[in-house]
Amino acid sequence: MVRTLIGLSVGSGLEGVDAAAVRADGLGLGLALRVVAAPRVAFPPGVRDAFRAAHGAPAPLAPEVVRTAAETLVFAARQALTRAAVSPRDAFAIGFLEPTRPAAPVAVRWAEVAERVAEQTGVTVLHGFADRDRAAGGAGRPVTAVADYILFRDPTESRLLVHLGAVSQVFLLPAGGTIPTAFGGEPGPGNQLLDQILFHGTKGREFSDLGGKHAVQGRCLEPLLARWADHPHLTRALPKTVHPEAFGRSFLLAAFESARLLGGGLPDLLCTATHLAARAIGAACRAPHMRPDGPRRVLLTGGGVRNGFLWQLVAKQFAGSVERADAAGVPALARNAAAAAVLAALTCDGVPGNLPLLTGAAGGRLLGQISPGDGRNWARCSAWLADQTGDYPRANRAA
To answer: InterPro entries attached here (predicted)?
Structure first.
């Protein structure tokens, strides 16, 4: 049976929603997938402003902000269904991947958002995928590793997935390999650090250095970059995940002070931080366990593909041989959304969606919380779940 699943993802920049309509044939780890639509919908200015004003705040956002955010997700899901020429009544399920920023997130009630999406679309929503991995002792990141394996594996070609998100992620898929042969982690900082530097340096006037237009005007402060190379996270080998405070406020304030002492301005600090992100990726991917036998194809995903300066520096780490994941059939900006759809399918198929080798969890687990859709959709999903998970204790685990 071919199922159509919708994936929704809110990026680390909290700018909007990425959606993906995914056709899935087969079951579990044997899924054959095709991304047939991948719209992107921006949050209304009022929602974006509320997110930015409340970043890290302990109090939840106003109900109307949560409602409008949910309506944006609903609109993105409907756009994906329309472009895929699928009626909401024929959609199987929706996977929703919340932002996984290492730093304290905006106090959005994402579970309520998921409930509202289920209510307004009538389609069952699976969400909160990282929570179960954390409950099993894992870091909850990279929660998309198994989904990435299914989306990007190839029988004849080794592939290296480089995700330029809030933090950088790398994931090696040897040609024809199985899940135990896949390997990766989070080499270092990414867009979040660059955004924080710009926000702090402009006193809140700018939030994101899109295109790297500020960083490209600066010069790399080599003494500072050399000092950063001794950062505890960067000296550890993969697999690893970025700790919430590894490149947080203390790192940020020290970076501005060091740049000042070296006579550097905001563009110089941004330039140096962009070099840091790229070199951390290159160093991690030169390790012996990240080099398969034979050549590897390097595919870039995430919001960082829009940063031309970061792209250029990452490409240098691989002698220029990098390309967008679009070439492998997954839109670079929709990787998280597509992964969300796959994670929803795995849970419905009774297959654990986490990779304990990378997250540190005690074992493979079925991921996600379920927000049932309308009666017709939920009857179909629950019957499918019952069929596939009846022997769950004996099911093959992802790792």
So the answer is: Anhydro_N_Ac-Mur_kinase, ATPase_NBD
Q: What is the DSSP letter of 126?
A: E
Whole-model pTM? 0.93
Furthest C-alpha separation in the chain: 65
∠ Cα 392 99 6 (to 5°) = 55
d(CA 148, CA 142): 10
For 23-44, give the DSSP string: EEESSGGG-EEEEEE--EEEPP
Full pLDDT tens readout for the chain, 399 residues: 899 999 999 987 788 999 999 999 999 999 999 999 999 999 999 888 888 776 655 567 788 989 999 999 999 999 999 999 999 999 999 999 998 754 445 567 889 999 999 999 999 999 999 999 999 999 999 999 999 999 999 999 999 999 999 999 999 999 999 998 999 999 999 999 999 999 899 988 888 887 889 999 999 999 999 999 999 999 999 999 998 889 988 999 999 999 999 999 999 999 999 999 999 999 999 998 888 777 899 999 999 999 999 999 999 999 888 999 999 999 999 999 999 999 999 999 999 999 999 999 999 999 999 999 999 999 999 999 999 877 655 444 444
β-bridge pairing 16-25 and 2-10: antiparallel
The dihedrals phi and psi of 84, each to the nearest 5 degrees, come to -85, 0
Q: How far apart are CA 208 and CA 334, in angstroms?
A: 19
